[in-house]
Amino acid sequence: xxxxxxxxxxxxxxxxxxxxxxxxxxxxxxxxxxxxxxxxxxxxxxxxxxxxxxxxxxxxxxxxxxxxxxxxxxxxxxxxxxxxxxxxxxxxxxxxxxxxxxxxxxxxxxxxxxxxxxxxxxxxxxx
Length: 127
What we know:
The protein is 17% helix and 33% strand. The chain has helices at residues 16-26, 83-92, and strands spanning 9-13, 30-33, 39-43, 49-54, 74-78, 96-97, 104-105, 108-114, 120-125. The longest helix is centred in the first third of the chain and has 11 residues, at 16-26. The protein is α+β, with helices and mostly antiparallel strands. A hairpin with a 5-residue loop joins strand 2 and strand 3.
């Protein structure tokens, strides 16, 4: 018998409600706070499921400095014709563009940002 499983990406931060609100607005999702206010989930109808967790000693990642690895990032898929609009939404919500030396990776339009807590994420044109 196989045990049913699912997964959720958890981002550490100093202010989980604020960061969860950013991703809920960006991904057209909702926030869910359970018994632990230091752990907030972001859940949406289109399969979105991530969480943010308070880390009292949190320090933002310093990527893209060459001496620091990116480690992980969230890739958000966007319709190709809506990339500029998606970028405006992200920036209006508090995302900061990250200069990676170009916006095209292979044949894909990929734009990289830091969320309000400093985690990297990208908007990528979906095929």
